[in-house]
Amino acid sequence: MSLGSTLRSVRERALGTLIRQVAAESVAEVRANIDEIERILANQGDAADEVAETIGRTLTRLSSELTALTAEVARLNQRLERFEQLGRADTHS
To answer: Using alpha carbons only, what angle is made at residue 61 by residues 79 and 42, rounded to the nearest 5 degrees?
Structure first.
């Protein structure tokens, strides 16, 4: 093996090692970025679940309150009708 071919071989190995090292560092950096994005998306998903749960509880409460309010309005309408009937009965007496 000549000195020229030995130098080429050493240079190619050094270059190959350097390329593998840079590639490994790039892969590690990309992997860290992907992990961070996955974490952010998971947090957003958790937050969306919490918002949906809160909205669900609020809608359930509002539905219950609306049912109670509807019943109260019906009760008040019945009282109003009785008062109107009493008022008509008094004017006919």
So the answer is: 165
Reported as a single tens digit per residue, the pLDDT across 9-66 is 888 888 889 899 999 999 999 999 999 999 999 999 999 999 999 999 999 999 999 9
The beta-carbon contacts of 33-39 under 8 Å, at least 24 apart in sequence, are none
Two structure tokens written together for 83: 């008062």
2 φ, ψ to 5°?
Answer: -85, 165
Q: Distance between CA 90 and CA 77 in Å, rounded?
A: 20
Taking the C-alpha atoms of 75, 79, 81 and 85 in order, what is their torsion angle to the nearest 10 degrees?
160
CB contact set of 1 (below 8 Å; sequence gap of 6+): 9
Is the pLDDT assigned to residue 91 strictly greater than 80?
Answer: no
What's the pTM value of the predicted model, to 2 decimals?
Answer: 0.52
